[in-house]
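REVIEWER CHECKLIST
Item 1: Sequence provided? yes
Item 2: Single chain? yes
Item 3: Sequence as submitted:
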Amino acid sequence: MSECTHDCSTCGESCSSRTKPESLLEKPHEMSHIHKVVGVCSGKGGVGKSMVTALLAVLARRQGLKVGILDADITGPSIPKAFGLTQKAAGSENGIFPVRTTTGIDVMSLNLLLENDTDPVVWRGPVIAGAVKQFWTDVIWDEKDILFIDMPPGTGDVMLTVFQSIPVDAVVLVTTPQELVSMIVEKALKMTGMMNIPTIGLVENMSYALCPDCNRKIEVFGESRVEELARAYGIANTARLPIDSKLTSGVDHGMIELFTGDWLDGLIDAIVDLKPKAQA
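Item 4: Structure as written out by the authors:
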């Protein structure tokens, strides 16, 4: 082997310098200092991923942490509605400012930039992925202990863009008891494994309903598989959310910050204790 000149353009050797993949991670806005990033994902839509994102953010804020939510579900943004946000995001020559909720959670979502909340976003995949990346690079998040990313459903362009361009420390996966949904969430689990991003928790939404007379748990959509999946993939933290009209009403009326319930307490404690990759 000839002596290395450090000029790969003139070299035919397959050394470690040449074969090492180039990092695609983007830096956040220069005025942002984000300590920990947690993505909330699902294998398909309609399982309550945005609600889980909102609940985790509220719980983290109740612990006195500085919290933000990046709504990466560009074509179906629902985070602003859950928090009752009607104010539009503003910007300056320095960047875009997120909108703050009643309790102090900073939110950036495409619906905070549209003139009308019901305007459809008819964009192709690369444009959507680019918008999500800008929510990371162009938004002035200031100091954040935890930034939650509400991911779009599935394992397509946007999820890949987020995992490659944003330093996600861990993900929470959301599912429901149906066998089909559980099968699909396994696809998301395998994708996060391929991207070398740990799954810190598995949340089963619509897991059961409580009988109003005897308080018995009724598994409306079938037997829970959350513990089975967690064991199979080595996930330490699980949670089961009930079918609860108070939760859905809180989302519908923009009052999610008032929710009560201890279903996610163990998971949020694990997220708070999680060491960022830079410190692990």
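Item 5: Key structural point noted by reviewer: The mean pLDDT is 88.
Item 6: Recommendation: ____
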